[in-house]
């Protein structure tokens, strides 16, 4: 097959036929996926960036409730990918899971646009006095939001991994291209977010919420058209394991059953198939590593023999479980940084609404638009990182990535600590300004420019170039071969848990 120019990693087309390397995959296929991602992120951030403002000004929720509800919804958006990835890895595959979920996503956006546009679906106002939203209006609005969350559950974990699948790891030139993939993938994501935070937020607050939500809905539909135009060029990974997640649990169960036995010093005493099995099945053999030795007990044979009824796990299966355990440990470390990230669209926006937002005498900057500085700093930093920082470090370290993935995460977390320290100092200044100006009315503008918040936004954007992109790449790279969709949900679920933790934090601070 290699002589005929087929891909070497066994990827196929939709009809499950081998694909030619020259006519499929690589950046020409990813161009369609990147186009989708830009529009989809525009739709998501068009809703998320200003949602806390809509809840307080249109549905008339109090500040704590609105922040909590936004965090809970954002948490759901980032947690549902666990189920979408499981369905893709175990049953439908990435392409078809994405296809079904994208239709649900569009349905949610259409319903949300109707919820903010049709008169009887939103609270009414007379003579400047607005009624509270009725139970049915609230139910319709939040149902629309959570339909979006369900749709995102199937699209988010599969579209990025599907993009990475377009590069053949067995082809040296394509493997080098793949090193840059996640950087430019996130670049397209940031571009969509920038349009949302600069353009859509202004439209929502000044020209109408219906138009502000309608534009990204149409954009999302256009992005799907772009995605399906590229169908003939896509490569599809063949699922070789019936239940990848089930194999991990099987290793844990076998290791627990053998917990009183000692793992052998001689690796030949552990169960493993011969090389011919992996050649015939197309699976990759993974060799033994010394970490998490207690899981090696899952590959212990009974008295040196393999029981045909309850065969032990193979070394390759055990190593897959070790990879997942390692990812869990890194995932736990990311929860606090994800809690900080969750404040960009909630607490930081509410801070901004209290400050002086005027540019000149007539124009007032929407508070959520300051989030564009996160995106702008990312858009500037990604090309600099990919084109200058990586080649410079590559010469010194001989690492294809420039620095290791864990070093990249460490730098990002350090910048995030600096950003939140600055945010603390700015909030202290804001509170002192309230006190010194004897401000008692919550609606009174504090005589302090909103641009005091800009440094924390910029630094969080730079930090995300290191830790957000680094985490997405890390979890994809470290995932077992048949679990790469599920593996990337470590990235999304960390953000989801961070939103829930932020909701808990806001609730506790409010109570005290």
List keywords for this structure.
POT_fam; Growth Hormone, Chain: A; NRT1/PTR; transmembrane; MFS_trans_sf; tripeptide transmembrane transporter activity; 16 helices; 512 residues; two-stranded antiparallel ribbon; 2 domains; mainly alpha
Element layout with pairings:
Blueprint: H1 26-48, H2 51-57, H3 63-79, H4 81-117, E1 125-126, E2 129-130, H5 135-164, H6 172-206, H7 209-229, H8 244-257, H9 275-281, H10 315-333, H11 335-342, H12 347-354, E3 355-356, E4 358-359, E5 363-364, H13 372-397, H14 405-436, E6 446-449, H15 454-478, H16 484-511
Parallel strand pairs: 3-6
Antiparallel strand pairs: 1-2, 4-5
Helix pairs in contact: 1-5, 1-6, 1-7, 2-3, 3-5, 3-16, 4-5, 4-7, 4-16, 5-16, 6-7, 6-13, 8-10, 10-16, 11-16, 13-15, 14-15, 15-16
Report on this structure:
The chain has 512 residues and is mainly alpha-helical. The chain has two domains: 26-239 and 321-511, Growth Hormone, Chain: A (Up-down Bundle); 244-313, no CATH class. It contains 16 helices and six strands. The protein has a two-stranded antiparallel sheet. The protein has a two-stranded parallel sheet with strand order 3-6. A two-stranded antiparallel ribbon has the order 4-5. The longest helix is centred in the first third of the chain and has 37 residues, at 81-117. The model has no long low-confidence stretch (mean pLDDT 85). This is Protein NRT1/ PTR FAMILY 5.1. Keywords: Membrane, Transmembrane, Transmembrane helix.
């Amino acid at each position: 097959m290699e002589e005929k120019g087929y891909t070497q990693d066994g990827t196929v087309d939709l009809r499950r036929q081998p694909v030619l390397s020259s006519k499929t995959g690589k950046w020409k296929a990813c161009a369609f996926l990147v186009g989708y991602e830009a529009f989809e992120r525009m739709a998501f951030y068009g809703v998320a960036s200003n949602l806390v403002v809509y809840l307080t000004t249109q549905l008339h929720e109090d500040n704590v409730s609105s922040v909590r509800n936004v965090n809970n919804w954002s948490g759901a958006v980032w947690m549902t990918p666990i189920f979408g990835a499981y369905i893709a890895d175990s049953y439908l595959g990435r392409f078809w899971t994405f296809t079904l979920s994208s239709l649900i996503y569009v349905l949610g956006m259409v319903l949300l646009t109707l919820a903010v546009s049709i008169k009887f679906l939103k609270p009414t106002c007379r003579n400047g006095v607005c009624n509270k939203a009725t139970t049915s209006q609230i139910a319709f609005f939040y149902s629309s939001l959570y339909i979006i969350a369900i749709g995102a559950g199937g699209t988010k974990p599969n579209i990025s991994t599907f993009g990475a699948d377009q590069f053949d790891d067995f082809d040296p030139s394509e493997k080098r291209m793949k090193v840059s993939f996640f950087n430019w993938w996130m670049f397209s994501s940031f571009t969509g977010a920038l349009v949302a935070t600069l353009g859509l937020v202004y439209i929502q607050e000044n020209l109408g919420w219906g138009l502000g939500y309608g534009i990204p809905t149409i954009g999302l539909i256009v992005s799907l058209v772009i995605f399906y135009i590229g169908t003939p060029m896509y490569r599809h990974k063949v699922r070789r394991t019936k239940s990848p997640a089930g194999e991990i649990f099987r290793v844990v169960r076998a290791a627990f059953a053998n917990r009183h036995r000692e793992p052998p010093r001689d690796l030949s005493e552990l169960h493993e198939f011969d090389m011919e099995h992996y050649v015939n099945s197309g699976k990759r053999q993974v060799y033994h590593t010394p970490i998490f030795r207690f899981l090696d007990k899952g590959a212990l044979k009974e008295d040196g023999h393999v029981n045909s009824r309850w065969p032990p796990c193979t070394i390759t299966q055990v190593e897959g479980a070790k990879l997942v355990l390692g990812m869990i440990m890194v995932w736990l470390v990311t929860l606090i940084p994800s809690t900080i990230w969750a404040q960009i669209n909630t607490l930081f926006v509410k801070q901004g609404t209290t400050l002086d937002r005027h540019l000149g005498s007539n124009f007032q900057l929407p508070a959520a638009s300051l989030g564009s500085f996160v995106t702008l700093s990312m858009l500037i930093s990604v090309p600099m990182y990919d084109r200058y920082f990586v080649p410079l470090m590559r010469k010194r370290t001989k690492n294809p990535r420039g620095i290791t993935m864990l070093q990249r995460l460490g730098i990002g977390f350090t910048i995030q600590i600096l950003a939140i320290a600055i945010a603390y100092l700015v909030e202290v200044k804001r509170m002192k300004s309230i006190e010194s100006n004897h401000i008692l009315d919550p609606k009174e503008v504090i005589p302090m420019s909103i641009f005091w918040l800009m440094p924390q936004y910029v630094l969080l954007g730079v930090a995300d170039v290191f830790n957000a992109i680094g985490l997405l790449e890390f979890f994809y790279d470290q995932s077992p071969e048949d679990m790469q969709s599920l593996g990337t949900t470590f990235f999304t679920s960390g953000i989801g848990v961070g939103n829930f933790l932020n909701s808990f934090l806001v609730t506790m601070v409010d109570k005290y």
